[in-house]
Amino acid sequence: MMLKITNLHAKVAGKEILKGLNLELKAGEVHAIMGPNGAGKSTLGNILAGREGYEVTGGEILFNGKNLLELEPEERACEGVFLAFQYPVEIPGVNNTYFLRAALNAQRKYRGEPELDSVSFLRLVREKLKVLHIGDELLHRAVNEGFSGGEKKRNEIFQMAVLEPTLAILDETDSGLDIDALKTVAEGVNRLRSEDRGMIVITHYQRLLDYIVPDKVHVLADGKLAATGGADLALKLEEQGYAWLEDGGIETLDIKPAGQTVNP
Amino acid sequence: MSGKTSTIDKLVEQKYQHGFVTDIESDTLPPGLSEDVIRAISARKDEPEWLLEWRLKAYKHWLTMPQPDWAHLNIAPIDFQAISYFSAPKADKDRPQSLDEVDPKLLETYDKLGVPLHERARLAGVAVDAVFDSVSVGTTFKKELGKAGVIFCSFSEAVKEHPELVKKYLGTVVPQRDNFFAALNCAVFTDGSFVFIPKGVRCPMELSTYFRINAAETGQFERTLIVAEEGAHVSYLEGCTAPMRDENQLHAAVVELVALDDSSIKYSTVQNWYPGDENGVGGIYNFVTKRADLRGARSRVSWTQVETGSAITWKYPSCILRGDDSVGEFYSVALTSNYQQADTGTKMIHIGRNTRSKIISKGISAMQGQNAYRGLVRITPRAENARNYTQCDSMLIGKKCGAHTFPYIEVRNPTAKVEHEATTSRIGEDQLFYCLQRGISEEDAVSMIVDGFCKQVFKELPMEFAVEAKALLEVSLEGAVG
Lengths: 264, 482
What we know:
By secondary structure, chain A is of the alpha/beta class. Chain A is 36% helix and 27% strand.
């Protein structure tokens, strides 16, 4: 098991957001996490990445057998945890290529691999750009500075391609994208699917899952997984919305409750 | 990230790396300021009568002036009678004829500071007029510069060798009565640099001076005068470090630039005087008057400064845009950490027609540092079609520091175009987390973000200086985030 989250409880600004979340993800799997606003979807992503201000009050997260909660954010990154941000941050004056090379070399150093010089790095970068069908104009600009929403998200996927994480968490990568940008991003993600990589795709809407077909879909509501199913669960959610959660009627959805294994 | 705090504390406590004192006997006047002291300084320097009179006139006026208190600074009272106004290395009388004859301890000091004298200077193609305390001890490349007709020497030497030039330009940009600290400098200045680029000459190398305050409790009063004649071009670098000290040391320099028709002067400073310790004890008081007079048409002056040191910085490198079509620029990075305070900025006085000025100011405050930008853009009635662009950005690191902006804009000609942009940002926890999430360490992330913030200014610096400036910011900010 690559990722095993057991009974996770967490607070943000004193308020309990996660209330006993359980999740298991194997290498090679893509899980979608859906749910209404405020359910704790982004909180989960931020806790996995180790963001400050998210207080874990109970439970455990094992990542490839290691206690993830004991690691600093940069150590988690070096261990292979990647978060594609919902709102990628602008860093004015810092060249995108320079930034990415610093990141890759920090990770390589952590793993005891030699750092890449600028020539080999550039070769690697061009290769990735080609695979992702992204132009090289992103290379010459400052990190996310003045990027459109679509460019920012594409830049996240590009970074993911270069850093080759073990576990990628995509936090509402589809938000604010038009359909073409969405397709480009989804295509990039699909190219990065591999047997030894796990992915968690956090999204509010089903439409992203038309393009990134998940192995499992989880519904997160009120800090817990309310339901788990196959890709078809997302479609049902699309039809029926999240209102059933408030009615307390999982049964009405004709899906199996959380915790039961569903083989797609 | 509480585990990080202890490492940060350790880094914060790192001592100033240039904090050592060279053990050289100093020929120092007893503390105190009076006409007699000024006469003594003048006599020791074997100065002509006219210069002594000039000093005394400044002194008499200084006595009538109050110390200014309008800056956003908290200054402990300065006892001007407790300061010694002259200190020179003892070997002064038998001045060394070459670097080989220079006191090896002195060279060692320069070595520690990384001053590019000797072979390093030749390799780097930099001429150095190194000021140790108050008297210049070595000047390199003089011959090569001489071939081009460039005069680059200590101020004292210029008084002896080129009195007509000194007399012609001294005090014509910053008058004796200009302000309290300038008047004090006029009365007691000990040495500094003199640069003269004759008509049509492009100075063949970057001129560089390293300053260093060394003798205890000695005020440092430098005076620099740079004259670019018609069509002349020069780039001048000034950098300083100072040894660790508990008493506050006063530094009141005056820099005058004169630019005639079609000339250009680029003046770059990296200022790293001792900033005081982590409790705000000690550190240099840096009260500097820097001004350029763009007398000639189409002349151009560019000030670039990276201010990371000093306990207190009070400094406004300015341009008087007198010549038609003249251009003045000011690029500044000012960093205050621990208990440092800075009130710095510029004045752009537009007098000529079609004059243009540009101000890019980047203030960084960390720990309890206080940083103020104070700038004046004045468009006088005659200045048809004057243009100014001001961009003033502040970055805050942590929650106890402060950034303040005081822009003054006076427009008396309706054809003027004046733009002012200002931003303040807190070094984002968001930016930081973004970097950490990609595997970059906190220290590297901070220096990367700060470096990006300062990029517009750093790119104006000569290459070696830009590298040094970047390193300085890194050292100054070590552990500032927590």
